[in-house]
Amino acid sequence: MSLESFIPLLLALVLSPLLPGIINRTKALFAGRRGPPLLQIYFDLWKLLFKGAIYSRTTTWVFRAGPILGLAAVLAADVAGYSRLMGRDEERTLTQLKTFRKTLVDPAIVTHRGRIVKTTGDGMLVEFASAVDAVRCAVEVQREMGKQNASVPQ
Fold it and tell me: What is the fold of 73-148?
């Protein structure tokens, strides 16, 4: 990879904490308050990076390693062609999306011990304790959607 491909990524990582600062400051100004400093999130991140842990003298290594070794698998899902479908028939698309979520997606997530972290109009972010569970859930949903959409024209 070239340097040009890293620059946008680096800018996004460095400047992304600035956006909530701008939003919070703007909200405060509209409410007639001064608000937090624009770079408050950078200050908070700096404090968190150098924050030390406090442990009892009798703490075992297992307890100390707990916060460091917390692993999770994340599944990001999104509806293919959502904008096109919404353009054709918004009401029908939303009804079908809710039906598929209720009858197929949500039960599959529960079956595979997942937890929905965030949903958007056509997508969701799901956390699983195991990568195997995340993949099994995704494959199950894809297969069932394929069966249900087999007769739908592309």
Answer: Alpha-Beta Plaits (3.30.70)
Give the pLDDT confidence score for residue 46 in this predicted structure: 87
Separation of alpha carbons 80 and 142, rounded Å? 12
Angle between helix axes 40-49 and 18-30 (nearest 10 degrees) is 130
**Token pair for residue 103?**
């009858």
Helices (H), 50-129: 61-65, 82-88, 90-100, 106-111
| Helices (H) then strands (E): counts for the chain | 8, 3
Extents of the domains making up the chain: 3-52, 73-148
**pLDDT per 10-residue tile (average), the chain, 154 residues:** 79 85 89 88 86 78 66 83 86 90 93 91 88 92 87 68
E strand map for the chain: 73-78, 114-119, 123-128
Which distant-in-sequence residues (6+ apart) come within 8 Å of 69 by Cβ?
Answer: none
Q: Which burial class, exposed, middle or buried, applies to 73 when counting CB atoms under 10 A from its CB (0-12, 13-18, 19+)?
A: middle
As a whole number of angstroms, the distance between CA 59 and CA 69 comes to 16
Structure tokens at 83: 């904008």
